Amino acid sequence: MQFPENFLWGASSSAFQIEGGWDEDGKGMSVADYNAFKRSSRQADTRIASDFYHHYEEDIALMKELGMGMYRFSFAWSRIIPDGDGKVNPKGLAFYHKVVDLLRKNGIEPFVTLYHFDLPYALVQKYNGWEDRRCVYAFERYARICFEEFKDSVRWWQVINEQNLMIRVDERMNITESDPWKADKMRAQMDYHMFLAHALAVKACHEIIPDGKIGPAVSSTCTYPLTNVPKDVWAARMNDYMKTVYCLDMHCYGAYSGIYMRYLKERDIVPVMQEEDASILKHGRPDYIAVNYYRTLCASYLPANEEHPIGSRVYRGNEVDFDQYGYCRDEKNEHLAASEYGAQIDPTGLRIVLNDYYSRYRLPLLITENGLGMADELTADGKIHDAYRIDYLRQHIEACALAIEDGVELFGYSPWSFMDLLSSHQGFRKRYGFVYVDRDEQDAKQCERIRKDSFYWYQKVIASNGESL
Ligand code: BG6
After folding, report:
1. What's the 369 CA to ligand 1 centre distance in angstroms?
2. Looking at residues 36-61, what average pLDDT do you find?
3. Separation of 5 CA from ligand 1 center, angstroms?
4. Which pLDDT band, with edges at 50, 70 and 90, does 305 fall under?
5. Spatial distance between the Cα atoms of 347 and 244, rounded to a whole number of angstroms
C-alpha cells in the first residue's frame, strides 16, 4: 500500500456525541441535547456522553499514543454562544483553547467542524432555526468569532457536517410540521440558508486566516441499481443526485443543478433567494471536500404516483434511506453483507465515491468518517477483541490506496471514531471507537478508557504509513 509521505492519519468525533457537560460553564442547550433528552428513559443522552469534557487530557494522551497526525472534532456552537447569536461565553472558548493547545503540543493537527448536528436550541425558539435568514448571519458571526479566536492555532476547518443528510432528518432540523408539502418547503428554505451560511463562512475563513483550509463534509451516497434495466439505473443515479451531488454542486459551483432545480419547481418549493446571494454562493468554493463514507445503497425505479406522490417518502426500513423525490425505492443488495445495524458493507463503493467526486470537482479529498458500529463486548480478560472492525477498516483503507493509485488526490483518512461515543440516535451500545468507553446506556460508571484490539492495529498502520495493513 502506497500512501503519500505527508498523508494525514487521524480519527474523528463530534461535540454532542463525546463531550457531556451539556450545561456546564454556561453552555446552552442544542437541538442535539433537546432530541437526546427525549430518549433519555431508553438510552444514554448528551448529559455525560463519553465525558470528554472531564477526560480530555487523558484522551489526548491516548491520541498521541495512537500516533494521530490530526484530530477531527467539533466545537459546540452553544458552548461558545449559548443562545446562538448573543453573548460569547468566555468559558466555552477557554475549553476549546485548552483542547486545541494540548493537541498542538502533542503534534496533532486540530481539524475543527463548526456545526455537527447541534444548532443552539435558542435559535429554534427565536427563529425556527435555519428557516429564518437571521440564522445565516448568526452562523456567520459565530464562524468569524471562531476564526478570529483560533486563527493562530487552527488551520483546518470544516463548516457543516453532513448538511445533505441532516436536512432529510426532521428531528435534526427541528421540523415538526405535519403537512408534507409545508415541511418540504421549510426544508428547502433551511437547506438554502445553510448553503449561504456555508459560503459566508468559507469567505470569512479566507479573509481572517490566509493559509486556512476550509470545506464541507458530505454524507456520501453510492447507489447501485437493483437490475440493469435502464430505469433502475436512472433511479439509482437520481438517488445520488438528489441526496449528495446537488449539495456538492452548490458548494463547488454556487448554484443548484438543473435536475435539482426541476425537483424544487415541480414540488413548488423553490426557496426565497435574494439578489446578492448568487455572488456569495459563487465565491464560496471550498478548498477540499471531506467524505463521510459508511456503506452503499441499492435502488429500484419507483416513480411517484397517486399512491405515493412526490414528497410522501418511500421507506424500506431506516430513518435516512428514504426517497422523497419520487424516483426510487431503497432495496437490499444481495451481494453485500450488512452490519448488525443494517449498513451494507462495501469497500469498493468507497473507491467509486472517491473517483466520482474527484473527477467531478477536482478538489483534494479527505475522509472524515468511515467505520463500523457494533455492540462491542468487554471480555473477561478486560479487552475488546474487535477483529470485525479491523477487517472493515483494513478493506476501506485498501480502497483508499487504490483510489490514490487511480489518481485521486486523497490527503487524509480520519475514521469514525476515536473513542466510543453516543450514536447519532441509537444510544451508546452501538460503538465505533478505537478506545472503549466503559459505560452503558443508563449507568455512566467512571467512563474508563480501554484500548481495543483495533487501537493497536491502527497504531501500526499509522506508524508504517499504511504498509502494515
Ligand atoms: C454520521 C454522523 O452520519 O454517522 C455521525 O456524522 C454519526 O455523527 C455517524 O455518529 C454514525 O451514525 P450513527 O447513527 O451510527 O451514530
Report:
1. 8
2. 96
3. 30
4. confident
5. 19
CA 180 to chain centre: 26
- Protein residue closest via CA to atom 14 of ligand 1: 424
Confidence bin at 318 (pLDDT 50/70/90): low
State how far Cα 380 lies from the chain centre: 34
Domain that holds residue 358: 8-293+338-463
The reported pLDDT for the residue numbered 314 is 76
Question: Which CATH number characterizes residue 52's domain?
Answer: 3.20.20.80
426: in domain: yes
Q: Closest ligand 1 atom, CA of 421?
A: 10
**What's the pLDDT at 304?**
84
CA distance 208 to 201: 10
What does the mean pLDDT of the chain come to? Answer: 95
- Ligand 1 centroid, distance to 13 Cα (angstroms): 9
Cell numbers that stand for 325 in this block: 423525490
Helix (H) or strand (E) holding 387: helix 387-406
Instruction: Annotate 351-385 with b (16+ C-beta within 10 A) or e (fewer).
Output: bbbbbbbbeebebbbbbbbbbbbbebeeeeeeebe
Sheet arrangement for strand 223-225: 223-225, 297-301, 328-330
Q: Fill in the amino acid letter for 116.
A: H
Total structural domains within the chain: 1
CB of residue 324 inside a 6 A radius of ligand 1: no
What percentage of residues in the chain have a pLDDT greater than 90?
90
**Residues identified as active-site:** 162, 369
Q: Where are the beta strands (DSSP E) in 25-135?
A: 70-74, 109-115
* Cβ of 219 less than 6 Å from ligand 1: yes
Is there a domain that residue 307 lies in?
Answer: no
Residues 6+ apart with CB under 8 A from 353: 220, 222, 291, 293
Region 58-82: mean pLDDT is 98
Mean pLDDT of the 227-244 span: 96
Q: What percent of the chain has pLDDT over 70?
A: 99
Which residue is associated with the grid cell 451481494? 335
pLDDT of 351: 98
Q: Looking at residue 228, what is its pLDDT?
A: 97
Query: Each residue of 411-449: pLDDT tens digit?
Result: 999 999 999 999 988 899 999 999 999 999 999 999 999
Query: Is the CB of residue 430 below 6 angstroms from any atom belonging to ligand 1?
Result: yes
Residue 125 CA: distances (Å) to CA of 79, 122, 188, 271, 405: 17, 5, 19, 21, 50
Per the domain annotation, does 304 fall within a domain? no
- Model confidence at 234, in pLDDT bands (50, 70, 90)? very high
459 burial via Cβ count (<10 Å: 0-12, 13-18, 19+): middle
Look at residue 450 and tell me if it is in a domain: yes
